[in-house]
Structure formats: C-alpha cells, structure tokens
Design a protein that fits this description.
Number of helices of chain A: 15
Number of strands of chain A: 19
Oligomer: homodimer
CATH topology of the largest domain in chain A: nicotinate phosphoribosyltransferase
CATH architecture of the largest domain in chain A: Alpha-Beta Barrel
Largest sheet of chain A: 7 strands, antiparallel
Family (chains A, B): Belongs to the NAPRTase family.
Structural class of chain A: alpha/beta
Function (chains A, B): Catalyzes the first step in the biosynthesis of NAD from nicotinic acid, the ATP-dependent synthesis of beta-nicotinate D-ribonucleotide from nicotinate and 5-phospho-D-ribose 1-phosphate.
Low-confidence stretches of chain A: none
Strand order of the largest sheet of chain A: 13-12-1-5-3-17-18
Shape of chain A: elongated
Pfam family, one (chains A, B): NAPRTase_N
Keywords (chains A, B): Glycosyltransferase, Ligase, Phosphoprotein, Pyridine nucleotide biosynthesis, Transferase
Largest interface: A-B, 103 and 103 residues
Number of domains of chain A: 2
Catalytic activity (chains A, B): 5-phospho-alpha-D-ribose 1-diphosphate + nicotinate + ATP + H2O = nicotinate beta-D-ribonucleotide + ADP + phosphate + diphosphate
Strand content of chain A: 15-25%
Radius of gyration of chain A: 25 Å
C-alpha cells in the first residue's frame, strides 16, 4: 500500500505552483525539530526513524493515486508527470533512533530538491510526532520503575496501526515487551499477555478458569486475581497452580495497599517466588508512587500510548536553506510572531564534561571544530535515495534500544526527575 | 494486509485455553461501552463503525500469520487450526456511527461464540477509542464555531494511519473538509489546503510566492500572510491577487487582535469579500474566544487529532452474558473495586420529551415496551458475519454525518456548554 497520499493537499499544490517556474527543483534543506519540549519535560526521545525509512520506500504515486489526483483536480498534468516519476533521490541525515533531543535539535536534516523534500513533510511529522511522544513518555516510566520490567499494553487505546508504532517506541525506550502481536511479528518485539476478566466470567468460577489457563500455559503463567475478591482470588490461584505460580495480576483497587496485602498472602501460602504485576491505569507518577511497594512488574496502557499528557511531540518541518541564483546556500527562516525559526544548515553535537551531557550545541553553517566539541549527533539515514539498512527492521530497533540506554546514561541525574522543570541541558546555537 | 494480528496476545491464549474443553465455543455476548465520559464532557460521539466493518473483513489468519504464531509458540496446533478457519459468523448490533453516547451506552453488542467475539476485542477498542475521541472533540469545536466552517489539518500530529481516521471522524462530527489526501480518496471527504511558510521562503519574497500560487490556483486561493509581517503580507496579497482574493490565512500572533486589524485592512483595500481563516493551535476554547472576531473559518490540528485533552475515549469491551449448561442466557459481570460491570444483554433507547433528549434508558434483559419508550439506538451492523453495506464506505460516512447532526439537535441546550459538567442526560438502567 502506498504511503504517498498520507500527505496534506498543500504539499502537492505548492509543488504544482513551483514547478511552473522551475523553482520546485531548487536544491533545498529542510529540518525536522521541536521548538520546545512538552511543558515541564526534561528531555525527549527520538523514535520513528526506522518506520519512516520503510514508508519512504513505499512513497509512490501509482496509477490509482494519479487518477484520483487528476479527477479531483488537485494538480495539473505536468505535476502529475512529476509525481508519477517521483523517487526520493536526496539525502537524509538525522539523530539516531533512541537518541535524546532538546528544543531545536535538528532530528532530521532532509536535503534534496524543494519538491522532493517538501512532499515528505506530512508523513515525516506524523511518524515522529507520534512515535517520539510515546518514546518520551515511556522513558520516564522506565526511570520511575527503577529497573523493574514494564510491558506495553496500550494497543486498545490508540489507533490500530499507531498501536504497532507505540509498542515499538516503548521498546526502544526500555520497555521489556508488548501485548501487540503485529509489533512482535513486524519488529521482533517480545510479546506477552495474561488473561482478561471475560475469561473468568466465561468459566463462572476462578477455580475453573485458573485450571483451564494453567492447563494450557503451565503454572508459570500470570493469573488475573481481581475479578471478584482479590484475597479469595489469590488463595484460589495458589491452590490451583501451586507455589510455582509465575505471577498474579492486579488491575483494580488502591494498588499501594493491595499489593502489600497480596505479597504477604502469597508468602504465607509459600508462593514466595510468585511475582506481582499491576496494570490499573498507570502513568510514570503512579509507577513512582509504587516504588516502595512489592511490585515486580508493570503493565502500562493508556498513558503510554497517548504520551502521558503530551500526545504529539510538537515537531515541525521547516525550510532552512536553499541554493540561490549564484549557487551559494542561502539560509532562510520566518519571523512570524512567537514562531520565528533559525535559518541555515545545522550540525549538532552533544557537549559532554566527564561523560555527562552539559549542552546541545547546534553549529549553524560552520561545522564544529575538533573532536572535543562533543559527540556528533547526525548520522546518515538515506544516501542519495537509498535508506541505510542498519536503521531498519528488527535489528534497527535493537540498535535503537541500545543507543537509547547509552544516551540516557549521559544525562545529568536531575534529568530523571519526574517533576516539571526546564530541559536537562541548554540548547546553544553557535 | 490482514488486521488479525492487531490483537493482544492474551486474546489468542484465552481462546487456546478455552478451546481445550470446548468452552470457547459457547454462545456469548460482549458489549463495548465507556464507563464514563472524559472529565467534564457532556456527551460523546460514536465514530469508527464503518472502519471496523472493513477491518473485520480483513481479519484473517493467513499462512504467514499462522507460521509466525507457531514459531513463537503463542498457541497450540488445535488453536492454529481454529484460527486458520476463522471467519466472524456472529451478529453485531450497535449505535449508528455519528450517534451520541453517554456512560454505559452499549455502543457495540457483539454476539457469537466466546472465541469469535473475544478475538475482536483489541481491534474494536483501538478503532472506537481513537475515532470516538476525535469525533467527540470535533463536535465541541463545531458547536464553538457557531456555523463557521472548520477544516481538519492535524495529519502531522498523529500516527500516519490514525490521520485518516481522524479526518473521517472530524467530518462525521461536522467538519467541512480535511487536508489529508488519503481521507479524500478512501472516504470521500472534501480536501483542501493553502500553502506553507516554506513556499514563501523558497521564493524569498511574498510577492513572488503569491504570484506563483495565484498563477497556479487562481485568485480564489488562500494566501498565507504571516511569514514576515502580517500587515505587509496582506497588502502584498491584495496587490497580487486583486480584490477577488479568496482568503488569507493567519497562523501566528494574538488572533483576536490580529484578525480585526486584517479585516479592516482588507476592507480598506476593497477586498471586502476576501475571507480570513485562522490556524494557530486552536481548540474549542480558542475557537469560542474568537466568536465575536471577524473570522470566516478555522483550521484545527493538534487539539483535534489528540481528542482535545482526552486522546482515548476510555471504552472497554466486556462479556455480559453467555449461554449456560441449561441453554438459558446467564448475565455475568465482574465486581472488582471501582470497576464493576452490569451483566445482561442491553437494549438502549434515548428517552425524549417534546423532541429533547432526557435520558439514556438502558433496558437490561427485557426489551423496552411500546414505541413511546424512546428512540431505539441499536441497529444491525453485521448479520451472521456479513457487514451491512449501508454503514460502509463514503456513503456510510455521509449517512453518519447526517445522523450526527440529527442526534445533536435532540440535545438540551446546556449540553453544548464547553465548561466542565455532568453528562447532558442521565443513564438509567431499567
């Protein structure tokens, strides 16, 4: 299925207008960045890169798309010809997937003709605004969980295809697994699951339901113990599965209290290695509030897949330079009230002191001098139209997850605070 | 592409466990509903129905899916055989798309074997939780705009496929058009667009950029006038396009002030019929705040596609009844703390007095008596596995839009208040 019509109409009409005098073909540089972080956030997490590379390969205007555009009179015949032949032939550099970003960080730098770069605007923003919103929320939850594993269970709380992206973004940011099967198949993410209350209700009694589940999945499974009464549910779970029961799941009630009671009950029943997993509308704050409770793992849904209060990362895509008539690069930017942009091609580095990040240094026009300027942040993502394979597929996801962990380790400690504050490091234009 | 793996792993493992003793095949009824509305909302808007019917037809476990499930040992061979033959053969009734809903409204009633009904849980919730969140936000924006047209422009602020669903949901709730081309092609939604700041920056001067745009799209187009200085932008726009200029777009600044200045300037230049459209991070409150300003139309992005503070509608999918051993229907519900559900098959009607809605009456087990009980809310959506065509495609969307308008007209006037309050009508279980 083509991704080419996942595009705002004005991208094509701008091309249509600018093809008439040839200006659409002028070499140009666009940057994708966030003007600011969501209110109070200390850092953002880049996610979506590997997905964009796949979507880019399927960005084709086929006969059906061209016929529809013609019928709707979106563009003229000359533009239809141009779209028919469209292949992105430019270069995209950008932050590694999993990398952290700050206000102004040039997450993608897209270089090509004006037409071939502008036509990617809507799609690139859709991908990065959603995926990075989820990854940014996920990273805070991972910090709050202090090493305890988290599972992504939010598929039912976001669009059915966004659900795959959410599972992928959460995994990159340090979640252990997802409930979403397609995320497992498409991106190699470990999948997991327990059972729903409907299963217990179908059997009518917890004893029968647990027996059926243990029969199918073995005593190492996770039994849902709160359909009726939690204390009775726990007693029945251990009775049926024995002390080798893998885990119990609790999805209701005042978790801080309930979890302690359940731990004591499990221990008293000899099920000392049975774990407790909780799933009741958690966000990073609820996770942190359970840090002293005997919780072994968390399942997170709604708050994760909706960005925990910031469901879109606020990224924008702006023309920052184009070749002028004399063949030189002309930096450009708008001066609109409250929305001005910094023109010019940018080369960002993360400035470090003793291995700790101290600034996001964005060198405008001139590259940074010397290797001690900081860790360079741009890598090649697409070279002359060809996506770099290392960033794609399951191995790309695994690499992004590793890179995220390394980038987080550079942050100053106060960056991990969940309370509202300023970005963890300042952005400096040099 | 199959939709079958857009599913939580536990749906399949529950089926696996319950197939072993045949209980998975027991006739069952599931209901999809919201326990409550998002905080302070007066009503919700159902959207997603037509999309679910399409996804249901593509819910097939093909050789690739089965091979992956086998390799991952998600379920056993008997379950794989069952999945291979899976076709939904049950019946789905539900609220018409575009209908309003309230706490407890049974938006979908899915009847089939436990297995064939439970396996749709994740997908159905993904669709309704996202689409209804957008439609519910959109309806408030339409009220706030008091008859002035609204365009959906949020594709870049949500996942690239959710963007299509958002455009569709907004149109059902009364938006006039969308910027998203695929929404136009797939669902017959009118598409529109103006131009981006990048277009002006490419040309370097507003005069050249406007000349190119008017050359391509005619003077009836909408010119973006705030790349540098709005007053100058407006003067240039009228100079280039003449007084027949269709519209100017303003995307920055204090809109209530700026819009009045621009209107006066346009009028002074003789462009008295040139419209003003605004697009600067609007939500229903910002739209309402502009009600006395000379705005002609609105473009809405982020707030719309992220549900304006409620990005997931909070719908759940619960087993409410199944056939018991004696062949009678057994109502079932969980009693978990704070999350109890009402068992039994439900038949909802909207109680009306003099044409005004006064209650959401949900008849449990026994049907409502007499035609004066209220307007019946359930219609057939899928009959013995076959989706009802009237709810599908572009004509389904058009019908949903019409139905939404009629359902809104029944609401008491205070339901249109944007301030926080209780649901506009009470839900009564009878």
């Amino acid at each position: 299925m083509t991704s080419a019509l996942l595009t705002d109409r004005y991208e094509l009409t701008m091309i249509d207008a600018a093809l008439r005098d040839g200006r659409a073909l002028r070499p140009s540089v666009f940057e994708l960045f966030a003007r600011r972080l969501p209110t109070g956030r200390r850092y953002g997490v880049v996610a979506g890169t590997g997905r964009l590379l796949d979507l880019l390969e399927r960005f084709r205007f086929g006969p059906d798309e061209l016929a529809w555009l013609k019928r709707e009179r979106v563009v003229d015949d000359a533009t239809l010809d141009w779209l028919e032949g469209f292949r992105f032939t430019g270069t995209i550099r950008g932050y590694r997937e999993g990398e952290l970003y700050f206000p102004g960080s040039p997450i993608l730098v897209v270089e090509g003709s004006f037409a071939e770069a502008v036509v990617l605007e809507t799609l690139a923003l859709s991908v990065f605004n959603y995926d990075s919103a989820v990854a940014s929320a996920a990273a805070r939850m991972v910090s709050a969980a202090e090493g305890r594993p988290l599972a992504e269970m939010g598929s039912r709380r976001t669009g059915e295809r966004s659900a795959i992206a959410a599972a992928r973004a959460a995994y990159i940011a340090g979640f252990s697994a997802s409930s979403n099967l397609e995320a497992g198949r498409s991106w190699g993410i470990p999948t997991m699951g327990t059972a729903a209350h409907a299963f217990t209700l179908l059997y009518g009694s917890e004893e029968d339901a647990f027996r059926a589940q243990v029969g199918a999945l073995g005593p190492g499974t996770t039994l849902l113990v709160d359909t009726f009464d939690i204390e009775q549910g726990v007693a029945t779970a251990v009775k049926v599965a024995g002390p080798a029961l893998g885990a119990v799941r609790i999805d209701s009630g005042d978790l801080a209290v309930v979890v302690r009671e359940v731990r004591a009950q499990l221990d008293a029943l000899g099920a000392t290695s049975t774990r407790i997993t909780v799933t009741n509308d958690l966000d990073e704050h609820a996770i942190a509030a359970l840090s002293s409770a005997p919780v072994d793992s968390y399942g997170v849904g709604t708050a994760l897949v909706t960005g925990s209060g910031a469901p879109a990362a606020g990224m924008i895509y702006k023309l920052v330079a184009h070749l002028d008539e004399s063949g030189g690069w002309l930096p450009v930017g708008k001066t609109s009230e409250g929305k001005a942009t910094v023109g010019g091609r940018k080369q960002p580095v993360r400035a470090l002191q003793d291995g700790v990040a101290v600034a996001e240094d964005i060198h405008v026009e001139d590259p940074p001098l010397g290797s001690d300027a900081g860790r360079p942040l741009l890598v090649d993502l697409v070279r002359e139209g060809a996506p770099v394979e290392a960033h794609r597929g399951s191995s790309g996801v695994a690499a992004a997850r590793d890179h995220h962990r390394a980038a987080m380790a550079e942050l100053p400690l106060q960056a991990l605070s969940l309370s509202r504050g300023e970005p963890a490091i300042p952005t400096r234009y040099l």
